[in-house]
Sequence to fold (355 residues):
Amino acid sequence: MTFANPLYLRVGAVLLLIVVLGMWRHARRRRALAESLGGRTAAGRLSAANLYRWRVERAVLVGLAAVALATAAAGPAWNVPPPEPPPQPTVRNLIIALDVSASMQGADVEPNRLAAATAAAAELIDAMENDRVGLLLFAGTPYPLAPPTNDHGPLRYLLGGVTPTIASAHDPGSLPSVAIQEAVAMLERWSAEEDERAIVMISDGEAGEPAAALEEAARAAAEAGVRLHTIGVGTAAGSGMIMPEAPYQLGGRIMAESGAPAVTRLVETNLTLAANAGGGLYAALDDAAALGRLLDEVSTPSVAPPPPVETEAPVWLRLDPVVWLTAASLLLLFFESLLDARLPGRALALVRRPA
Fold:
């Protein structure tokens, strides 16, 4: 038990001492009265009470009442252990890695791959409304735009700036392994180790590097506790690429080194390989069922938080000690007032003693 004003405990000790002193003075006055009446025998004949006896019961009742009041004034409170905090929900952190290389200008997806990938990223942000989401663009170089955050408004604003003119026909090609490494670094920098961490790469799977490099980067991410999911954009038939005109950039069809129009195709083998090595899922953008499973996977915690344990405190801990101490002191004083009470009864007749 703790006390808000422990000074009043000392006041209670002083009050107890005063009560004892008062009872002692009261006993002395009773004894003096008995002596004035002629001693023990004469006082016994004239008084129904024993004037030589200490009124211990009165001292005990008044003394306990004084101690109870002083203790109540001290502000007692039970030492109740603080309730256990409710289990915290799992914190999920997701990095959306969006491919913006020149191959994403393929028109085999309406209106083009980049626009469809951007729409898929926006849908993913909506599915993660209560989680932390970050954004990374990549081509031959990764471009981190936003660390994981619960404020998704800026992410949608940044996605609005991902337009066809963001790509370049002279881009050195897509290096998804570098994008994975940068996304893992962002998660390690901006999230706790016990959080759930994942990457969703949205790409057509074309890479300017061996598939082994992509697999190695995905496996390293899994070893760091980061799951890698991939979403494929495009078709196996492929299409040509037309670059839009932009400041300091000429538009037109992208040509291969042979002089023929370049054709870009969806490379699902790279995306499936990366997802399997990263412990995640692969879904083609036009496969609604697979895409739904992937969205459920990233937006549902892998470990549900345990339900809160509600424990009821013992009865004595739910009682306010101030109220009960005050009530006890009043009850003790009430009992003390009854010590001098006399029940009404038939008066006793005087009995003459024979001479």
User: Anything to note?
Assistant: The two ends are 68 Å apart (CA to CA). The CA atoms of residues 252 and 338 lie 110 Å apart. Residues 346-353 have pLDDT under 50 and may be disordered. The longest strand covers residues 92-99.
